[in-house]
Amino acid sequence: MLAIVKIAGQQFKVSVGQNLYVPHLNGKTGDKVEFNEVLMVADKGTITAGDAVKATVKAEIVNDLVQGDKVIAFKMKRRKGFRKKHGHRTQYSHIKIESIA
Predict the structure, then answer these.
(1) Is 50 helix (H, G, I), strand (E, B) or coil?
(2) Angle at 68 between CA 65 and CA 70, to 5 degrees
(3) Looking at the DSSP assignment, which residues form a beta bridge with residue 7?
């Protein structure tokens, strides 16, 4: 069974037992979360999409805070002495899909 679900404004293709990193969710390690914004479900050759989808995706938070790679934004104008350096690390949650129903 396969589903496309919307999590924090991003779309993810998920299946049962899959581990994935999504934008940071409120909750602690071990909490159960449900995602109701399911856009499409494919099950044994039948595809349901749009308003006809009445499914929910249940998942468990494996690790509540995972930091992504460091991203550096560096700006410079030559011969002017202008240099600007900013950086950040995006925060993710590691979840495991338990069921699509």
Answers:
(1) helix
(2) 135
(3) 10
- Whole-prediction pTM value? 0.84
Enter the DSSP assignment of 37.
Answer: -
Nearest to 5 by CA among 55, 51, 64, 68: 55
The tens digit of pLDDT for each residue in 51-87 reads 999 999 999 999 999 999 999 999 999 999 999 999 9
CA separation for the pair 18, 12 (Å, rounded): 11
Judge whether 38 and 7 are in contact, CB under 8 Å.
no
Q: What's the token pair of residue 55?
A: 């499914």
- Domains of the chain, residue spans: 2-65+92-100
